[in-house]
Structures are given as structure tokens and as C-alpha cells.
Write a structure and sequence with these properties.
The structure is a single chain. Helix 2 crosses helix 3, helix 6 runs antiparallel to helix 7 and helix 6 packs parallel to helix 8. The two termini are 30 Å apart. The protein is mainly alpha-helical. The longest helix is centred in the middle third of the chain and has 20 residues.
Length: 145
């Protein structure tokens, strides 16, 4: 994948009429760092991505230039993986928990999120090890809407 984060930061900053200095001050970095990102000399630290995305009110995926269709395909695949794991005769509870965590981290804004709640009709979601992850996912989802 070709990263376009520098171009995206520049475009978002210019759309909102924000200076490099103002963005840098908000993020706690130097304006030279912002300039280097925009010129694609360097990339921002991974820890800064949520702050940059939040500043511009976009998703981290949008900031990174990940196409929406690609993201939705990955979300659909994650839901299908979870469904397959839940439907197994011998459920692998740690695998189910990890799949739910992945969905919570990456796909809360997906149009496929309804499938996650639809799967909730299954008794698997009430399993003592799974239920806390379902609750965390529900809380994170509700914070976004």
C-alpha cells in the first residue's frame, strides 16, 4: 500500500485553513515535523495518528488513505470469521474474544457492524469470557454515535 498520509494531512490542513504551526502546537511537535510529514520525508509516529485524525475529525483509515471499499471488505471478512468461529461445534473462546477485540479496534464505523449485533442472539455472547468483550464493544460503539 502506498501511504499518502503526508498529502492527506496537507489537504485536510488547507481545507480547514490551519497553519503548520497551529497543527504542530496542538500535537506537541515542531512545525518542521509537520512540514516533513507533508513533504513525505518522514511519517508521524503511530501514537500521533489518532490525535491527528481527531484534530481533523476523520478516521485514522481516512488519514492513511485506506479506501473505504477496502475497509468495508475487511470488516465483512472479520464478521464472517467471527460467525464461523461461533458456529463451530467446539468453540475456541480465546479466538472469539480476539476476533471481537479486532472488530472493536478496527470496524466500529463499518456498515457491517449490524452483523456483530445480529450474532449477539447466540448464547456464545453470554459466555463469561466473551461477555466483557461484548460489553466493551457496545460501550465503544455507543460512544461513537
Amino acid at each position: 500500500m502506498n501511504l499518502t498520509i503526508g498529502k492527506n494531512i496537507r489537504a485536510l490542513r488547507k481545507q480547514q485553513s490551519i497553519t503548520q504551526e497551529a497543527l504542530a502546537e496542538h500535537l506537541g511537535v515542531s512545525y518542521q515535523s509537520v512540514s516533513r510529514w507533508e513533504n513525505e520525508v518522514t511519517y508521524p509516529d503511530m501514537e500521533l495518528l489518532p490525535a491527528i485524525a481527531g484534530f481533523f475529525s476523520v478516521s485514522v483509515d481516512a488519514l492513511l488513505g485506506i479506501p473505504e471499499a477496502e475497509k468495508e471488505a475487511k470488516a465483512k471478512a472479520a464478521m464472517d470469521d467471527l460467525r464461523r468461529e461461533i458456529l463451530k461445534k467446539e468453540r475456541n473462546i480465546p479466538a472469539i474474544v480476539e476476533k471481537i477485540r479486532d472488530i472493536r479496534r478496527n470496524y466500529l464505523d463499518s456498515e457491517h457492524m449490524w452483523e456483530f449485533w445480529n450474532l449477539g442472539n447466540d448464547a456464545c455472547y453470554r459466555h463469561p469470557e466473551v461477555l466483557p468483550e461484548v460489553r466493551l464493544t457496545a460501550e465503544a460503539f455507543l460512544e461513537r454515535v
